[in-house]
Structures are given as C-alpha cells and as structure tokens.
Amino acid sequence: MVTGAPQTMRERREELTPMLAQYVDVAERYDDCVVLFRVGDFYKAFCEAADEVARICELTRIEREDSTGTYTACGVPVDNAPKYLRRLLDADYRVAVADQVEDAEQASGLVDRAVTQVLTPGTVVEEELLDEGSSTYVACVARDPGGGAAGDGPDEYGVAYVDVSTGECAVTGGDAAVVDEELARVAPAELLVGPAVPGGVADATDCMVTERDPEEFAPDAARDTLADYGGADRFAPAERVAAGALLRYAEYTQGDDGTLEYVRRVRRYDPRRSLRLDATALRGLELFENHADSGRTLFDTLDETRSALGRRRLRAWLRRPLVDRERIAARHDAVAAFADRTLVREDVREALASAYDLERLVGRISRGRATARDLRSLHDTLAAVPAMREALAGVDALGEVRAALDPLDDLRSLIDEAVVADPPQELTDGGVIRAGYDAELDEIRTTAREGREWVADLEASERERTGIDNLEVGYNSVHGYYIEVTNGQLEKVPDDYTRRQTLKNSERFYTPELKRREDEILGAEERADALEYDLFVDLRDAVAAESDRIGDLADAVARLDALAALATVAVERDYTRPEMGADGVHLDRSRHPVVEETAAEFVPNDAALSRGTVALITGPNMSGKSTYMRQVAIAVVLAQAGSFVPADAARLPVVDRVFTRVGASDDIAGGESTFMREMRELTDVLCDATPDSLVVLDEVGRGTATTDGRAIARAAVEFLHDESGATTLFATHYHGLTDLADEYDRVVNRHFAATERDGDVTFLHRIREGAAAASYGVEVAELAGVPDSVVTRAHDLVAADRDGDTAGSAPDGAQRTLDEVATNGHGRAPDAANAARSATAASDDAVADLLADLRGYHLAETTPLEALNALHDLQRRAEDAASDADAGGERP
C-alpha cells in the first residue's frame, strides 16, 4: 500500500511546479493517507499514489509532462467521488481530501488548498458512504498506563467508541474478556490499539486496524483532550487514555480545522448493567448476521421502524438488552400501550415516516457542512413532532417520551422564515434565502431585478429607435450584456453604439447605459450571493448552537420509533407480553421468530425450566433441537430488550448473560480447529456462567473421539449442575448422558420425537419429556442423497454395533417411542419381540399425538364442515393406532 508523499516527487521537490510542491507538502503532513488533490473538476493523485488509486478505482492513468519532467497522474471526478472513495475505503485505505479553500478567480497566484477531511472506514460522515440504519463506529482499546508492559501488572483496559457521523461516544473498562465482548457488540469498522495491548485484540476483530503514535496515548494528552468533552475525572486511567486517543483521532479525520463540537459528552457505561452477549452468542442466535440461504436475522424480523433514528435505536436495544426489571417493565408498558391502540400507533408511525435522521443532520450542521436542504429536512422533521405529541396525548405509558418530544418551534420558525421551501442543492447557486428575511438582501435583489427588467425591455425599444428589425439583446459570462446586429444591418447602427465583439455574420455592441446597467446588475448579483452566503452561515451557526436540544429530540424520536416497531411486530405476528421475574423459563407454545416466517409450517413447543435446571435434549438429527434451544434463548433476549415474545404465554427470569455454543466454526488461519474453537467457547461458558445465566450448548464434544467427547460432555453437565448453577439447555447425541437425570435432582431429560413407518422417518418437531435413544443419522444421510450402497452398509454397521456394544444406548427406564427402535438393514426388526415393542411404541406415540392435537383444536373457530373433516381424520388415526397396538399384542 502506497501512502504519503510520492517518492519521485520528494526527490525532485526543488524542481516541482508550485501546485505539485503544494501536493507534496500536504502528502507529507498526511503520510498515512492517499491524498486526493482538488484540481478543477477532479480530485487527482500523482506518481506512485496515482498508480494505486488507478488500480483500486479502475481508472486510466495518464502521463503528464511539464518543465520539471514527466510524472503519472489519475483523476476522480468530483461529482462522482463517493463511488471511488467507497472502493478505496473497502480496500482499507485512508484518504485525505484536499479541497480548494480559496476562490480560483480571486486568488493571486496558486490557489490555497487544505485537507477538509480524512476518510477512513470508521470515520466517514458522507451520506453516500453510510448505511442509514446502522451506526459506523471507530473504536479504541488502551491498557492502563500504570499496569506496566504487556504481561505485567493488572490487566485493565479501556474500550471507547464514537460514531463521528452522529456524535455518539461511550467508554467502558475491564479485563480482556470485557474488551472482546464489547468489540463484538460494537462491531467497529475501524480499531485503534494502544501500546502494550496484546496483539490478539486486533487479530480478533474483523475490521481495519489503525496504528497511532504512542504519544497519542499519553495520559496528559488524554486529560487535555477530554477537557473539551466534560472532563477526564469521571474515568478510570485506561478509559481516559482510550477515550482521549480516540477523540483526537476523530478530530484529526475532520481535516485541518476539524472539530467535534456536536459530541455532547462522552458517556461512561458499565457492561454489567445490560444483558451481556459475547461474540459467540451474537453469532449463535443470529441476531444481526445469518449465513443461511434465507439471510434473515432476528433484527430483520423485528425491524418495522419508519426512520433511520429508530432503526439504529432498535439495533442498540437488541445489542444491549436490559437487566433492570423496572426499565424492562416500562418498555413493555409502552409497547403494550401501542399494541392496544391501533389508531395511536398508526398515527405515530405515519408522522415518523416524515422524520429525517436528526443525529446525522445535527452532525453535518455542527461541522459546517450542512446544505440548505439539510436545514429544510430539519424543519420538516420538527413540523411532524406536533402530530406525534397529539397522537400520544392521554397515553400514560408513553407520557415520558411524549414530554421529551420538544417541537423546537422557535428553531422551526427561524428556518422557515430564512430558507425557501425548495432550495437548490448548492449554496453557491443562490436563491436560498427567502424574500423578506433580510432587508439589505431584498434591496440588492430589487436592484438586480430592475436592471434585468430594463435589459429585457431594451430589445424592443432599440428595434423601434434604430429601425433594425432583427436586433437582439443577449448575455454571456465572458463579454457580459450586448446588442447584436447582423452584417446586413450595420449601416443602421447609431453613433452611441460601441463595438464589443465581432462574429462571422454579425457584430455585437453596447451602449453607455447598457454598460452602466450591466455593472449595476452584476455588482448587485455578486453582492447578493456574498450576503446570502453570510446569512446562511449565520443561520447554520444559530441552528448548531441548539444541537443539545436537537439531540434530545432525536433521542425521543428514536425511542418512539423503536417502541412502535416492537408493538407492530407484536400485533401482526401474535407475540405476547412476558411476565418478568419468574423462577425459571416458562414458555407456552413458543416459536422461533425468524424460522416461523420462512418455514412452510412451524410447530410450537413449550419450555418449562426451573432456575438452575439442566435439560438434556436428545432426539433425531433435523428434529428441531437447535431451533428449539435458540428460540428459548431468543425469547429471553427479546423480553429483556423490551419486546413481546413469540409464544402464547411467557414467564421469564431476568438473566445476566446468555451463553451459546451452537454450530461448528473454526479459525484455521489462527491455528484453531473446529474442536479447539468449541473447547474455547465451552471454557468461556463454564468459567463465566452464574446462577442467573442462561446457557445453550449443542453437541459438546462431538469434534473428537467418542470416548473423549462423551467424557467432556458428561463432565460439563456435572459442572453446570454443581458449580455454575446456570439454567441450561444441553442438546446431545450421547444418549448415555441421559442417566444423569437419575443422579442429579436438577437434570431432566427432554427429547424430540419422530415416527417411522416402512423405513420412512417423520420428524414431529415436538419436544416431550424423557430421553430418546436413536438419532436417525443414517436416515438423514439417505434423505441427503448419500448413495444407496453407503446407506445400506451404514445400517448394517449400526445394527452390528448395537448387537455388540450397548454403551451408547438409552438407560433402562428411558421413555421408549418409535424413535428408539433398533433396526437391522432398512428398518427390519431383528426378532418378533423387537417388532412387538416397535408396534407398541408406535401406538403410544400416535395416541399421544392424537390427544395433543385434540386438546389444541379450536372448535369455536371451526365451521361444521371443517369439524366433520377433522373428526374423520381423528377417527382414522385412532384406528391406525389400534392396529399398531394389535400387531404388538396389546391394545392402548
């Protein structure tokens, strides 16, 4: 990667033209960046930098030659710059944009240029480069400066992050585990790493890592920087260093005159005051990322927001669910208020659709980069606030957020009085300030307008005075106003005409009065443009001075939108309000919120786990074990985020952490196999889980030898029961573990049932008490298209293994249903006794299914014809169950 001043230019500095010397000076000050240098309508790069930019952006390089020699250059069109800037950022380049900060027409000699911004993946502020519904963070990790070199002293770190586009900034501190967890939650686009921070921190992040001079992390420098952001005394040493270094870097990226005045304060937070979700849990529960074909995440399912503000707030709530019961109840109250009042909810959502991104608007305004259209967007958002307040009148549960909806009437009136309703995109185009806002501007405009009206009438009067019928009056930017006469009519030109320009077929003239009017018009327009610019800048500064009030309003609108979105989801998808504070997890007919949207048919299931219970879940592959465990954990996360949950009823505890170990992953580049990664994740669970935690473990120990894996799984279950006391869902194919339910009072067996008929397996996707002994792995292989010869041989090997070694079978007394039938070949019973047991198990299972469906039948919602059809189906199934029982020698 080539950055800094091009080597070939540095070597020839004394020979360079003034413009190229200016480019080298800028490139040396920003030596960690590719410099794009504004030249006319292009941003240009030169020499080695041009080679890199041309390669990344797929641009044509050109060879330039001047008095100093030949050099390479390439240009990015200013009007289409975001497209190319995105490519450079995606390639992990930092880009310093050097703009012309002086009017080229007024410059005496070389036009002055300065870096107006440094673009990096974590500090972009341009709308075209941002995802409107997500935050873009740059984060910083620093070690306690009093802790000595890496490996010495206490391992205390500070983690700070800032969204430069909105001004959100926060910091926390803790050990290495807190660092990993917070970086996973924040998911920064860029990371600064301080001195003495272990290299593994940077390796664990999937983002651009930026190196800074160690002096940037000096405690004194941090204290000086934080003085402008509320002071440094609120923070621990490592937090102070992280926040100070981060803010200095953010200021640096805003260019030579960079400022972050819109960062109102640096918020210090304690990770323990929210439900802690580490990277493994975020990935395992697919909250924000889903690598399956559907690509749907939990956030996608919940996102019924109407504004970018609400979308980011909902995402933040899901990243940091609450642990305070009162705050959780307050959110549930607000969601319930919206859910119960359809008209209120729809009126608010309609008003929210008019809300622009206030956080990013105030950021652009405070940075002095807002356009007239930005101010009108702010005005239009403020204009929608009264409708929100009116809709919420009398809704007690939403009273707090209603009170925070300050319509900022004074600011809205000021913008409306000053800026036209549909301003031009560019301020330099003029016509931004309304008539009547400034008397001086009105007077200047009147002068210019009267002059143009005089010119407009001149053509007719001159034709009459001179008798030249085809005489025309016109204007161009080079020669100004003129009177054009064709060559055939030149003898009629009066004496007071002065020649201005000669064309092929005509001559152009001016008169003393036309010249006077021209000077008057152009002078008035120039003065009007200058005054209009000054008036707009003053207006923008006045709005920026109210950034705190705008920020408070943005917070209220974001909360309102997120709450309304959760209520919309609850109503449209039949979610229920959870009762919080229960002694364990209790869900009636719970559902997975993402899977139920994409599956053709979803089977709800109950969950009943007392506090500290370890539920061993067995059953066939593809029966729904992983989905079930995820949906239980997701119900807890949703409830504590403030959402209703997909279930008929929910009584849930307030947990401190959710741990997951679901699915397989590896880090081959980092030297970790799938099993090693699994063991590291298991280590985190066993070391950090508490009696207030929820643990979800899937197939622990499957990545090694069966004996070792089964031993690890059994020991983990015993540890969770005896040591951590966490409420646990533990799915396994080690059926020998199910005897733990007989040895430990808080270990219970649950299984997912399946039925088999003529060698065909049907997964019922229903969870039941007791243990299963068959996983139907061979049958699943057959469904996947494994060759018949492999399937046949596998069946034979399974049968032989069962005949010779029953170590992995279910314990005596375990519930025996059809999913436990031992098979030989393709479902052939080895003897009559086994056949009888199979038939009896089938009957028991079928009867249980029949009774469950009968209890869940909604007779009041059924037509007579539907009832008759249902009764016929139930009768047929009862007869089939009786036949199966007869085959086994007994009746149900």
Automatic annotation (TrEMBL):
Keywords: ATP-binding, DNA damage, DNA repair, DNA-binding, Nucleotide-binding. ATP binds at residues 619-626. Residues 693-709 form the DNA mismatch repair proteins mutS family domain. PROSITE patterns: DNA_MISMATCH_REPAIR_2 (PS00486). One of its GO terms (molecular function) is damaged DNA binding. It comes from Halobaculum lipolyticum. This protein is involved in the repair of mismatches in DNA. It is possible that it carries out the mismatch recognition step. This protein has a weak ATPase activity. NCBIfam families: mutS1, PRK05399.1. Transmembrane segments: none annotated. The keyword Nucleotide-binding applies. Belongs to the DNA mismatch repair MutS family. GO terms for biological process: mismatch repair. This is DNA mismatch repair protein MutS. The keyword DNA damage applies.
